[in-house]
Amino acid sequence: MMATSGKDCGVKDGAPVCCNGSASANGAGPEASPSPKPLNGATVRPEGFTFTPQPTIEDIRRMQAEFTDERDWNQFHQPRNLLLAMVGEVGEVSELFQWRGEVAVGLPGWSEEEREQLGQELSDVLIYLVELAEKCRVDLPQAVLRKMALNRLKYPASKVHGSAKKYTEYKD
Ligand SMILES: [Mg+2]
């Protein structure tokens, strides 16, 4: 979590904060216990990992709408503010990864506390993303379906398999 300074007083993470956020790992060196590397260049896959079915994106929208309504915070939660808040939360996620070097799938070597913190910051990003979509009247689940369809057209598996090139670099 990002350290807060006196000028950060206000609304953060959808909740009031004033001047006393938890300390961050700002400036910390590389992690003490380095992550194990995959053997022989093998790809580590998150085999068997799935999300639980609830809450849905609509559940998250509703929970955040109730949270915001109960606090009379809609006056602050306009699209531009929500966008900036979300970007700030992306920064807080980034802080957890900085100074570590490459991080393998499954986060080997991360403590439970670090994993919990990552879950919290990723949740902040998602909550603001969902509220931003709501306030912009974007039906996010349907938009995701359309975008995935577009991505499949832009990156046909038969053409791009194993390649990291951008779609503009492919020639028919
Ligand atoms: Mg946060």
TrEMBL record:
Its EC number is 3.6.1.12. One of its GO terms (cellular component) is cytosol. GO terms for molecular function: dCTP diphosphatase activity; identical protein binding; magnesium ion binding. It is found in: Cytoplasm, Cytosol. Its cofactor is Mg(2+). Its main location: cytoplasm. Keywords: Cytoplasm, Hydrolase, Magnesium, Metal-binding, Phosphoprotein. Residues 1-48 are annotated as: Disordered. It comes from the Eukaryota. It holds the Pfam family MazG-like. It catalyses: dCTP + H2O = dCMP + diphosphate + H(+). Gene3D superfamilies: MazG-like. SUPFAM superfamilies: all-alpha NTP pyrophosphatases. GO terms for biological process: dCTP catabolic process; DNA protection. Hydrolyzes deoxynucleoside triphosphates (dNTPs) to the corresponding nucleoside monophosphates. Has a strong preference for dCTP and its analogs including 5-iodo-dCTP and 5-methyl-dCTP for which it may even have a higher efficiency. May protect DNA or RNA against the incorporation of these genotoxic nucleotide analogs through their catabolism. Homotetramer. This is dCTP pyrophosphatase 1. It comes from Pleuronectes platessa.
